[in-house]
């Protein structure tokens, strides 16, 4: 796959459905889970699925009249890429800058600080 790019919101919503279900995925599954909520018509979902195939996020197979789709990238890999790009762009890869931004308006609770310290200690081991 070429360099992966950030997904537009609509395509990311579809990928969330793909990641939450056991492949193969069908357009009918997408419509059932989010199509009605978003008031998408079937051609809209088909167009978004085609874009995801073209971008290398999904592969497709034709089974009879129905197309089935399979993820080519895991949710974890995509979120890691997104997080790395976000940290680099907005925080110059500084974890401290990120945490300061998170707690700029409301300080963390003692429990949150304890959890953060525990997490940090575990990561160092």
From TrEMBL:
Gene3D superfamilies per record: Penicillinase repressor domain (1.10.4040.10), Winged helix-like DNA-binding domain superfamily/Winged helix DNA-binding domain (1.10.10.10)
Entry superkingdom: Bacteria
Keywords, in A-Z order: DNA-binding, Transcription, Transcription regulation
Keyword Lipid biosynthesis among record annotations: no
Signal peptide: none
Cross-referenced Pfam families: Penicillinase_R
InterPro entries per UniProt: BlaI_family, WH-like_DNA-bd_sf, WH_DNA-bd_sf
Family to which the UniProt record says this protein belongs: Belongs to the BlaI transcriptional regulatory family.
Name of the protein described by the UniProt record: Transcriptional regulator
Organism: Siminovitchia thermophila
């Amino acid at each position: 796959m070429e360099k992966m790019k950030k997904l537009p919101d609509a395509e990311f919503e579809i990928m969330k459905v793909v990641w939450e279900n056991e492949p193969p995925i069908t357009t009918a599954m997408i419509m059932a889970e989010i199509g009605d909520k978003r008031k998408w018509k079937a051609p809209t979902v088909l167009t978004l699925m085609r874009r995801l195939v073209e971008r290398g996020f999904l592969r497709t197979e034709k089974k009879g009249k129905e197309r089935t789709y399979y993820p080519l990238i895991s949710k974890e890999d995509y979120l890691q890429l997104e997080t790395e790009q976000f940290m680099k762009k907005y925080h110059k890869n500084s974890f401290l800058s990120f945490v300061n931004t998170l707690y700029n308006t409301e300080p963390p609770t003692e429990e949150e600080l304890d959890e953060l310290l525990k997490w940090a200690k575990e990561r160092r081991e």
